[in-house]
Amino acid sequence: MCQTTEILKKHPVYATLMEFLKEKTVVLEATGGLELACVAELMQAGLPVAVVNPGRIRGFARSIGQLAKTDKLDAMGAVGIARAFISAGERGG
Question: What's the predicted TM-score (pTM) here?
Answer without folding.
Answer: 0.71
